[in-house]
Amino acid sequence: MARTVPALLLHLGPEEGEKQAAFLEIRGALRNTFGEDLEEHSFYAFETPPDQVVDLLQNGSLFGSASLVRYRAVEQLKRKEDLLPLVRYARSPSEQSVLLLESSEVSLHKDLKDAVGSRHTKIFWEMFESQKKGWLSGYFRRHDARIDPEALELLLELVENNTLDLRQEADRLMAFFGRQITLEHVDRYIYHAKEENIFTLFDAVLAGDLEHSLDIAVKLLVTMEAVQVLMGLSWQVERLFSLQTLSAAGVPRAELFQEQARRSGQRIAGKRLQKTLLEGLSRYSLEECRAIRVLTGDTDGLLRSVPAALHGGILQQYLYSVITRKGQWNVAAPFASRPWEFPGTAGFRGV
């Protein structure tokens, strides 16, 4: 194999857009060399153990002249014995394969980092808040489009801080509304686009509509991972908790968003989003918001530590616990009172 790409690479950090771009660049370089004969595989560390990945790499490509293996969420590999197959493989990697290790974290087990080496390790950091606005407005300009300042602020409030999500939402807005994007466009797109999204799900949660929430979640899981869905909800849970804290401190409702912007430096734009959050303040008390906040963090940790086959059921349990139990995990379940006590080796028992 003509070595155009290192046999072993480690990509770390939370900036999923740049990591995806790097992956596509690697794949493109290999395809330029091997054409459509390149065989590709993608695995997650919480589903597929390292020894199985190494076996595949050492056996070589079955149908092509080379293989590209993407092994994600490697932060889940915490024990030396789990890492040993990868460490051994790094000493003598296959000449016919490229192994790309990925993690959203920046801190991994030392053995894995040492095995790859700093030369072939790259960290993809999220943009600073001050950089996001320039990046997004520049993206619109590069596509001969313009976005109003208030619309830009609202979009930045609503989208995860990585270029992959920012790019996708910008593309959709231009497809829906053309080359001049206004605040009204962004507000309308969030809640009235034909596709369900994180914001319609949060709407249903704050309305206390469990059936609709579960239905939306099922649709989202067709194209999104459960961790991504939960991350989107987490951002909004934090907003709700912040506003409820201000309200409990005596800030009048008419001044909540102004005070929140003054303290955080970030304005919650969009009348519909503000209306949704105010409705949430009526449904969930400060203590319930605090419980939901804890539950969200616990569930995020749980999703990152059990097989993906369980994720759909865990997300449903989370929504049930938020809407019906106001942030309390299903205490009636015989196995746990909090989600991090969930036994990953047992079948999910539901709500």
UniProtKB/TrEMBL annotation:
GO biological process: DNA-templated DNA replication
Ranges that cross the membrane: none
Record's keyword terms, sorted: DNA replication, DNA-directed DNA polymerase, Nucleotidyltransferase, Transferase
Catalytic activity: DNA(n) + a 2'-deoxyribonucleoside 5'-triphosphate = DNA(n+1) + diphosphate
A cellular component term, taken from the record's GO annotations: DNA polymerase III complex
Transferase recorded as keyword: yes
Broad EC category: transferase
Gene3D superfamilies registered for this protein in UniProt: 1.10.8.60, 1.20.272.10, P-loop containing nucleotide triphosphate hydrolases
Domain of life: Bacteria
A molecular-function term among this protein's GO annotations: DNA-directed DNA polymerase activity
EC number(s) stated in the UniProt entry for this protein: 2.7.7.7
Keyword Transferase (UniProt): yes
InterPro entries: DNA_pol3_clamp-load_cplx_C, DNA_polIII_delta, P-loop_NTPase
Assigned protein family: Belongs to the DNA polymerase HolA subunit family.
Name of the protein: DNA-directed DNA polymerase
Organism per entry: Alkalispirochaeta sphaeroplastigenens
